[in-house]
Amino acid sequence: MSVQNVLDTIKEKNIEFVDFRFVDLSGKAHHITVPALSVGEDTFTNGVAFDGSSIPGFRGIEESDMVMMPDPEAIFVDEFTAHNTLNIMCNIFSPDGDRYDRDPRNIAQKAEEYLQSTGIGTSAFFAPESEFFIFDDVRFESGQNVSSYSVDSDEGIWNTGREEEGGNLGFKIRNKGGYVPVSPADTTQDLRSEICRVLEEAGLVIERHHHEVATAGQQEINFRFSTLVDTADNLMKYKYIVHNTAMKFGKTATFMPKPLFGDNGSGMHVHQSIFNGDTPLFYEKGAYANISELGMYYIGGILKHAPALIALTNPSTNSYKRLVPGYEAPVNLVFSKGNRSAAVRIPVAAVTPKGARIEFRTPDSTANPYLAFSAMLMAGLDGIKNKIDPRQEGYGPLDKNIYELSDVEKNEIRSVPANIEEAMDALEADYDFLIEGGVFTEEFIKHYISFKRDEAKEIAIRTHPHEFSLYYDC
């Protein structure tokens, strides 16, 4: 969409305000709102100034001036504002006109350019399955003398004995019993459908929605794949619309990977493929799972670099509460055509040549999508360039139930890092594949590692409530 088309949209839809947005290092959106009457062609030339020192992980106060440059291709009308508002995603620049190298969207755009420069293909396509919970109540606090959290859902299995107004009507979802039940067990169909309606208004193509495995309102909504940057933009819209639609219904949504102990967590399974023009590069009829050698090498790159990659795809301390055996968590660094506990799965059901793809199941939605998708692409491209064959490297295929293997067999399978510190150690030791073509910079990687280590320390130094259960009577 051209700048003129954006200005025409403002007039046609009676837009009163334009909301300029950007994404920080952690993947959180920020915004500055400008009256529509003040937005013209010069806005797209000069940008919108903001204070970079107030954004975590950006700049110090001595170099705080930064500029948002709006992208006319990335707009949607906001349904949650009282005044007609047009949201527009921006790229971040320094005042001297240079792209800011810590802007996640800049890194994603460089990743797309790097793919094209390799001659391997013209486009990388991504489709994340971003799971989330919808709760009726959430409470938490962390202070000097108190540390606690509580979440509640009318669907929660722990509420079978709760006294409710008019009596308890039952139909609570058991642990691991929440995969696609009909109502009245599934109480959230109308909410999901409304989310889908708003997503479609924002330009996403919805493929399906359903209740997920866990008790207490775990959900999944799938939207159609697109190119790397466009998919990252769409995921930012998706999270914004999920959060705000839930709030509109008097509920609260979270993409936190493991808000509940003892049941499945929420992942972000990322489907991905490479095309050269209109030609899919991951398909080879008759091969294992109909995946091409190029696709195999892509898998090899993902699995070889997985410990470092996970620092960007699973960047929270809570991520590793999900990545434990027993809850369908993809902790095993192997590939398979059917095993959902494998880190990489090759979908085979109802797959056409153009639908041939690989699915990296380990990531979760605490990831910054621009960084995570870029890192996955760079790992896969490294696998293609260096012909890393996952079959020869001992990554499978493994089409068995991993949980039923003997201890000897399990010990031969490499696993994901056990915590965020191990993931950061792995990234510190293996990031050359990320800085190829200047996509990521060494300075960015070192800054990111320091930023995340500081975040991890905030958890490590605080007393945990369960420690009272273990040690108070010592």
UniProtKB/TrEMBL annotation:
<feature type="domain" description="GS catalytic">
    <location>
        <begin position="104"/>
        <end position="474"/>
    </location>
</feature>
<feature type="binding site">
    <location>
        <position position="207"/>
    </location>
    <ligand>
        <name>ATP</name>
    </ligand>
</feature>
<dbReference type="GO" id="GO:0005737">
    <property type="term" value="C:cytoplasm"/>
</dbReference>
<feature type="binding site">
    <location>
        <position position="220"/>
    </location>
    <ligand>
        <name>Mg(2+)</name>
    </ligand>
</feature>
<feature type="modified residue" description="O-AMP-tyrosine">
    <location>
        <position position="403"/>
    </location>
</feature>
<dbReference type="InterPro" id="IPR027302">
    <property type="entry name" value="Gln_synth_N_conserv_site"/>
</dbReference>
<keyword id="KW-0547">Nucleotide-binding</keyword>
<dbReference type="GO" id="GO:0019740">
    <property type="term" value="P:nitrogen utilization"/>
</dbReference>
<feature type="binding site">
    <location>
        <position position="328"/>
    </location>
    <ligand>
        <name>L-glutamate</name>
    </ligand>
</feature>
<keyword id="KW-0436">Ligase</keyword>
<dbReference type="InterPro" id="IPR036651">
    <property type="entry name" value="Gln_synt_N_sf"/>
</dbReference>
<dbReference type="Pfam" id="PF00120">
    <property type="entry name" value="Gln-synt_C"/>
</dbReference>
<feature type="binding site">
    <location>
        <position position="322"/>
    </location>
    <ligand>
        <name>L-glutamate</name>
    </ligand>
</feature>
<keyword id="KW-0479">Metal-binding</keyword>
<feature type="binding site">
    <location>
        <position position="269"/>
    </location>
    <ligand>
        <name>Mg(2+)</name>
    </ligand>
</feature>
<comment type="subunit">
    <text>Oligomer of 12 subunits arranged in the form of two hexagons.</text>
</comment>
<feature type="binding site">
    <location>
        <position position="361"/>
    </location>
    <ligand>
        <name>L-glutamate</name>
    </ligand>
</feature>
<dbReference type="GO" id="GO:0006542">
    <property type="term" value="P:glutamine biosynthetic process"/>
</dbReference>
<feature type="domain" description="GS beta-grasp">
    <location>
        <begin position="13"/>
        <end position="97"/>
    </location>
</feature>
<dbReference type="InterPro" id="IPR014746">
    <property type="entry name" value="Gln_synth/guanido_kin_cat_dom"/>
</dbReference>
<dbReference type="GO" id="GO:0016020">
    <property type="term" value="C:membrane"/>
</dbReference>
<feature type="binding site">
    <location>
        <position position="359"/>
    </location>
    <ligand>
        <name>Mg(2+)</name>
    </ligand>
</feature>
<dbReference type="InterPro" id="IPR027303">
    <property type="entry name" value="Gln_synth_gly_rich_site"/>
</dbReference>
<feature type="binding site">
    <location>
        <begin position="223"/>
        <end position="225"/>
    </location>
    <ligand>
        <name>ATP</name>
    </ligand>
</feature>
<feature type="binding site">
    <location>
        <begin position="264"/>
        <end position="265"/>
    </location>
    <ligand>
        <name>L-glutamate</name>
    </ligand>
</feature>
<comment type="similarity">
    <text>Belongs to the glutamine synthetase family.</text>
</comment>
<keyword id="KW-0597">Phosphoprotein</keyword>
<keyword id="KW-0460">Magnesium</keyword>
<protein>
    <recommendedName>
        <fullName>Glutamine synthetase</fullName>
        <ecNumber>6.3.1.2</ecNumber>
    </recommendedName>
</protein>
<keyword id="KW-0067">ATP-binding</keyword>
<feature type="binding site">
    <location>
        <begin position="271"/>
        <end position="273"/>
    </location>
    <ligand>
        <name>ATP</name>
    </ligand>
</feature>
<dbReference type="GO" id="GO:0005524">
    <property type="term" value="F:ATP binding"/>
</dbReference>
<feature type="binding site">
    <location>
        <position position="340"/>
    </location>
    <ligand>
        <name>L-glutamate</name>
    </ligand>
</feature>
<feature type="binding site">
    <location>
        <position position="129"/>
    </location>
    <ligand>
        <name>Mg(2+)</name>
    </ligand>
</feature>
<dbReference type="InterPro" id="IPR004809">
    <property type="entry name" value="Gln_synth_I"/>
</dbReference>
<dbReference type="GO" id="GO:0004356">
    <property type="term" value="F:glutamine synthetase activity"/>
</dbReference>
<dbReference type="InterPro" id="IPR008146">
    <property type="entry name" value="Gln_synth_cat_dom"/>
</dbReference>
<feature type="binding site">
    <location>
        <position position="354"/>
    </location>
    <ligand>
        <name>ATP</name>
    </ligand>
</feature>
<feature type="binding site">
    <location>
        <position position="340"/>
    </location>
    <ligand>
        <name>ATP</name>
    </ligand>
</feature>
<keyword id="KW-0963">Cytoplasm</keyword>
<feature type="binding site">
    <location>
        <position position="212"/>
    </location>
    <ligand>
        <name>Mg(2+)</name>
    </ligand>
</feature>
<dbReference type="Pfam" id="PF03951">
    <property type="entry name" value="Gln-synt_N"/>
</dbReference>
